[in-house]
Write a structure and sequence with these properties.
single chain; about 325 residues; alpha/beta; Rossmann fold; 2 domains; seven-stranded mixed sheet; six-stranded parallel sheet; 9 helices; about 25% helix; globular; binds NADP nicotinamide-adenine-dinucleotide phosphate
């Protein structure tokens, strides 16, 4: 691999990619030339125009996982170095080539795509399963479309496990992040009464996404208020069952989007205690189904992408540095030439 700043052409044998070939801080990421991917049967080759930099990239690059999860996550993350050195779980681009048997997409289609744990989106070209790419809604730019994916795919997975309807009382911890900002919008769209927990600086944003009430975590501990909830969505990592229990109604649901090993081991017992559901796992709907659902919601105008910052591809290290702060509002998106 060699470092390079020139854009690959359609005939090059290499493409530029942001590679983390060891675990560490943002500085381990380098833009280098890697072999050009080719689409296998059932895949499409996409020229990337935008890709998100997410907490997943941070976790894999830094090997920073919730307590007790290191051993469990090693098969996915890698043992001595990242298993998939080109990071990036999702993004948007233009279909450049079709693998054998692909019928639903054509060369030139503008698509949103998800590679999930296979990663690889921080590159000029990505080969992805054709059903993990969908046509981008015309009203959204590549950056905006990208900004729906990480939070949207996660939120749809977890919310499938909760009964959310008119009047359901919902609390979203971490309402201004990539996941929380979509959960707030989906809960609001379902007619729920939404309380968002965020800092004072993000209160206006969270209200604009549909929260009826905002709790500033710097001044108020939601778990010590009188208010109780049917559904609590934990997107920060500081609200396990033990903390949430006093404000979770009997029969309620605690969705632990961030949960440690202890939460995994005690979820069944905690569910019995609340006579409801406490779970660190999302639903089982396949990626392709959730992606279609997400695009339909975007086309209906139910979801608004929240873009905090964009970075040029060559500034990928700075993008990682910002994501590492844990303070981004919604999403950080890399823009490819
Ligand atoms: N289980 C899964 O499948 C799955 C999938 C996706 C993500 N996740 C996990 O979900 C978590 C959230 O992901 P994300 O992408 O939404 O993260 P994110 O975008 O980085 O979240 C950042 C937001 O968190 C807010 N925040 C920080 N401390 C807070 C606190 N004490 N109380 C309330 N809000 C606080 C920040 O707001 P301020 O700046 O105002 O503090 C910021 O807006 C991550 O831990 C991620 O690993 C799990």
């Amino acid at each position: 691999m060699s470092t390079s700043r020139t854009r690959s052409t359609s005939t090059s044998t290499t493409v530029r990619a942001a590679v983390a070939d060891r675990f560490g801080g943002p500085e381990v990421v380098r833009v280098v030339d890697v072999p050009r991917p080719e689409p296998a049967a059932g895949e499409v080759l996409v020229r990337m125009r935008a890709a998100s930099v997410t907490v997943a990239d941070h976790r894999i690059r830094a090997r920073d996982v919730p307590r007790g999860m290191k051993v469990v996550s090693t098969p996915f993350l890698g043992w001595r170095r990242p298993r998939h050195p080109v990071l990036g779980v999702d993004g948007a681009g233009v279909v450049e080539a079709l693998g054998a048997g692909v019928r639903d997409l054509s060369v030139g289609d503008e698509v949103l795509l998800v590679t999930d744990l296979a990663m690889g989106c921080h590159a000029e070209l990505v080969a992805v399963r054709a059903d993990h790419a969908v046509r981008k809604p015309a009203g959204l730019s590549f950056v905006e479309g990208t900004a729906l994916l990480f939070g949207g795919m996660t939120a749809l997975s977890f919310l499938a496990r909760a009964d959310m309807r008119e009047g359901t009382r919902v609390l979203v911890n971490g309402a201004s992040g990539a996941v929380g900002s979509i959960v707030v919008q989906l809960a609001h769209a379902a007619g729920a009464h939404v309380t968002g927990v965020c800092s004072g600086a993000n209160a206006e944003l969270v209200r604009s996404l549909g929260a009826d009430r905002v709790v500033d975590y710097a001044t108020t501990d939601f778990a010590r208020e009188e208010e109780t909830y049917d559904v609590v969505v934990e997107c920060v990592g500081n609200a396990p069952y033990a903390r949430v229990a006093p404000v979770l109604r009997r029969g309620g649901t605690l969705l632990l989007v961030v949960g440690d090993l202890r939460a995994m081991l005690t979820a069944g017992w905690d569910s019995r205690r609340v006579r409801g559901l406490v779970t660190p796992r999302g639903g089982r709907a396949p990626v392709a189904e959730r992606l279609r659902q997400l695009v339909a919601l975007a086309e209906e105008g139910v979801l608004r992408p929240v873009v905090d910052r964009t970075y040029a591809f060559d500034d990928v290290v700075e993008a990682h540095r910002y994501v590492d702060t844990g303070r981004k509002r919604g999403n950080v998106v890399l823009v490819l030439p």
